[in-house]
Each structure stands twice: as structure tokens, then as C-alpha cells.
Amino acid sequence: MASGGDHDVCGEDCAAEDQLVTPWTISVASGYTLLRDPHHNKGLAFTEKERDAHYLRGLLPPAIISQQQQEKKLMQNLRSYEVPLHRYMAMMELQERNERLFYKLLIDNVEELLPVVYTPTVGEACQKYGGIFRRPQGLYISLKEKGKILEVLKNWPEKNIQVIVVTDGERILGLGDLGCQGMGIPVGKLALYTALGGVRPSACLPITIDVGTNNESLLNNEFYIGLKQKRATGKEYADLLQEFMTAVKQNYGEKVLVQFEDFANHNAFELLSKYSTTHLVFNDDIQGTASVVLSGIVSSLKLIGGTLADQTFLFLGAGEAGTGIAELIALEMSKQTKIPLEETRKKIWLVDSRGLIVIHRKESLQHFKKPWAHEHEPCTTLIDAVKAIKPTVLIGTSGQGKTFTKEVVEAMASFNKKPLIMALSNPTSQAECTAEEAYNWSEGRAVFASGSPFDPVKYNDKLFIPGQANNAYIFPGLGLGLVMSGAIRMHDEMLLAASEALACQVTQEHYDKGMTFPPFSNIRTISANIAAKVAAKAYDLGLATRLPRPDDLVKFAESCMYSPNYRIYR
């Protein structure tokens, strides 16, 4: 039987769909316990035979309804909620009650439910996490657990972990320091690893590392669920992270993927460079964002014309996302043209809070900004930089809403026939401009993509469908590719492979509508193709441990994917 990585004991892969399974917990789950176990509970979908065999008679109403009917009923309920946060809470309750039905809903209604379980609604959920906290999800590792992290990991009931998403809650989306309440992010991310990438739920582990918070309103909140102290920094912080990373490798082995999520800039870069040589690590804010944006740029070239090397890039924002995207663009440009990386970087300019990053500022810059300090006169504002650099592509990763003003967009349209404008900051309120503004101010000529979803825009009787440069296009397939090949290290070439695989999924029909990304409804096919390309790269680089190499990697990826359909119990 094909199986993603280690042996699939729960029959969660697609390849196991027709097998009869036994609903094991510690013993065979039956009766009341079975109904309270989200992994095996099917609600009213238990058959007459299953109700007899598992002591469920009388514990359920007599009606038997199919999973399809359950899905229809729940979608009707969800649509009746007017407040997105209420939908989020209903989805989380479903996940705690009936795991397969939760994923069935999410997979079958991905475009509708993605904004509910992830950005933008998850941001509000994190802000209110203490208030809506019902039952713990994931592992909480705080400074209190120092010296005992390995024991804490052993408390988690699942032993066969393949993907960990970990945050310290310091920079949640564009919302800042939410401390322990950042747990909503790893939980949401891993739900997408399963729904979109097919990684088994039992193989996913969300973790929040609580080193305190500098958010005064949380520290003063009597109901705050985390440590009530200022954030630990320096050696104390580094030692805790070192113990965590060592314990993860000791407990789960070399092949477990650790995704760093929503760490503050200074820690994000340091953790990635420190552990990328010893662990299988990935930072979605730096590398995932870069990969999806590069894919959007590559597919946009069909609309704006020219090659990647013909473009001039200007970024507003020089943090994790901005510098990560810039570096991957420079790498791809270098790969295509054989020009050294130091030269291709000169086609890319960054603006931070103090203006254009130029050579005379080099001494005062943080280390990750230094490669982007080029020879130029100082420009203190974005509009000055746009007029001076005359970019063909304008990318916003600033976390500051309304910064691509009418003047900026009009300037872009004045020297570009089709300017590419990417307003990538999340949530929607932090987007540098809206889709409507980009199309209106450029007289319908802009090619637009954003980080959060925008509705289609009608301009001069033409309907424009804005692209969403959502990391969820990349990380689930990337994770599946790493897991199914048994990769032991991450490599930049895998990110480039993922970008190219995504860009290949955009068809002429999509281009005709102004789309630069394929529709999300095809996400599982997209993920299987990305996983195959990533796995192929892992084999080519000698980083894969699952041998022999499967002949057809796309087919193998599809067989490894989790299927949410109910199983028949013995």
C-alpha cells in the first residue's frame, strides 16, 4: 500500500479508502467513547451494523444519514452565520467533534471556507483566542517547561509526527504580539496542510512557544491564557529554542518538518539560518511567501510582457516577506540568465520605514537588508522612489494599509503599459490598496494580486478577477513533497521547483480573465503537482530517504493524500 512517509496505521491515505478499519484508541473505541472521539466519530452516519457492533444503540437518534447529507446540512448552518468569527468557532467545534467531516467540508468548499479557517478570520480569532478558548488544541511549551521539553513532547498522544508548525506569537499576521493566543495560527495552518496538501491529521502537531508577551493589554487582562511577563530575549530565548529543536529531533527523528510561523523578523532569520543545516526547517513568512509571489510574477509575465530579467522591482517593506521574496526573485533570475546573484539583486529595490535602501545607509542596516543597498540618491517617500526607479513591478509587504495611494498607482501606470501591483499585506484591512483602487487608478491596465481575497471588479464593462498570492497554494504541496520523499533538509531549489509547478497550472483561460494564479477549487491537484516537483528535487539533490524513488511522483503524491471520506468499521 502506498503511504506518505511512515506506515499509515489509521487508514488515512487515499490508498486505504476501501479497507475495513478498526477504530482503535487505546482499546477498540465503542459506545459513548466512540461518539466522543473526533478521529472516529461519524455522528448519524453510523450504519445499523456499526451501531450494533460498537454498542451505539440508543446513544444516537434512529435516523441514518450519509456524509454528503451531513455536509449539506452543516454548510447551510455555516452560511446562516453573519459574523465570520462565529463561522470560525463553528468550524473549530466541528473539528473537535468529527474530524473527517471537518476536512470533508473544507476540501469540498475550499474557496468559501479558506477565509474562515485562515486569513483573514483567523487573525480576529487569535485576538479573541482567550475569550473563545474552549478546549486546548496543540502543545503549549512555556518557560516553565525549560529542561522538560522532551517530556512535554511525549505527552502528545500521537507519536508518528511528520509536520510541526510552531509560533512564539510575536508577529501574528499584521496584528503584532498576541503571545500565547497565537495558537490559532499553527492550528489553522495545519488544517490546511491536511485539507489542501493531504498530510494526515494524526501526523500534524501545532505548537506555541510562550516566552511572555510585550502586549500591555494582554498583560493587564485577567483572563489572558499565557505567561504574564515581558518576553524573554537573548540567551534565555535562544536556549529554550535550542532545547525545543533538539527535543523535536530526538523524539520524532530527522525527517520531521518544522515550520516556523509568525516569529518577529530578528528571530525568524536567525532561527532559519541556525537550524537549516541540522534540521528540516521552513519559514512560511520568508520562504512560502517568496515562492508563491515568484510564481505569480512568472505567470504575470504572459500579461505584462518580457522576461523576469527585463523587470525592475520595487518593494514597500523590507522585513521577512519582502527580503525573502526579493532573494528568491534574484535566485530565479540568476538561474535563468546565468548572471551572478550579486548582479541580479541590483534589479530589485526596497523601501523601508526610512525610505529607499541605498548604499550610504549600509552601516545602519540590519544584516538581512544589506544585500539590497544599491548606489542611488536617497528617497524618503514611496512616491519619490517610484518616480526615481520607475519599476515595472510594485510589491507591498509593509503591513501598512492604504500606502499604495492614487498618486503611486497613477505613477506606475504612467510609465508601464501594464503595471504589476501586488498588495500582499494581511489581513484585508492592512492591504496596501484594494483591487478596485488598483484597477480604477490605472484605468483598468494594472495586473493585480493581493495577500487577502478581494471580489472581482468590473471596470468599463470588463470583469477583472484579482489574483490572491496566498501561501496556501505552496506550503501544503511543499510539505507533502518533503514528507513523501522522506527529505532530511530543505533547499532553495525546492522553493523554485514549487513556484514553477504552480505557475504551470495557470491556463490561457485564466489569463483571459486577468488571473495570475489558478482557481483554488483545483488546490488538491495543484498540491499533488507541487509535491511531485519538490520530491523530484529532493531525490535529485540526494536529500530524499524514501527509496526506491517512485516511478510516477504525481500518482504517488495522490495516493499519499489524506481522504476525509468515512471508513467502514468492522
UniProtKB/TrEMBL annotation:
Keyword NAD: yes
Record GO cellular component, one term: chloroplast
Gene3D superfamilies (alphabetical): Malic enzyme, N-terminal domain, NAD(P)-binding Rossmann-like Domain
A matching Pfam family: Malic_M
UniProt: (S)-malate binding residues: R171, N426, N470
Domain of life per record: Eukaryota
Catalytically driven reaction(s): (S)-malate + NADP(+) = pyruvate + CO2 + NADPH; oxaloacetate + H(+) = pyruvate + CO2
Domain Malic enzyme N-terminal: 95-276
GO MF, one annotated term: NAD binding
PROSITE patterns the record matches: MALIC_ENZYMES
Annotated positions binding a divalent metal cation: E261, D262, D285
List of catalytic residues: Y118 (proton donor), K189 (proton acceptor)
Cofactor: Mn(2+); Mg(2+)
Cofactor mode of binding and number, as noted: Divalent metal cations. Prefers magnesium or manganese.
Domain Malic enzyme NAD-binding: 286-539
Keyword terms, alphabetized: Metal-binding, NAD, NADP, Oxidoreductase
Biological process, per Gene Ontology: malate metabolic process
Family: Belongs to the malic enzymes family.
Functional description taken from the UniProt entry: The chloroplastic ME isoform decarboxylates malate shuttled from neighboring mesophyll cells. The CO(2) released is then refixed by ribulose-bisphosphate carboxylase. This pathway eliminates the photorespiratory loss of CO(2) that occurs in most plants.
Protein's name in the database: Malic enzyme
Species the sequence originates in: Heracleum sosnowskyi
Upper lineage: Eukaryota, Viridiplantae, Streptophyta, Embryophyta, Tracheophyta
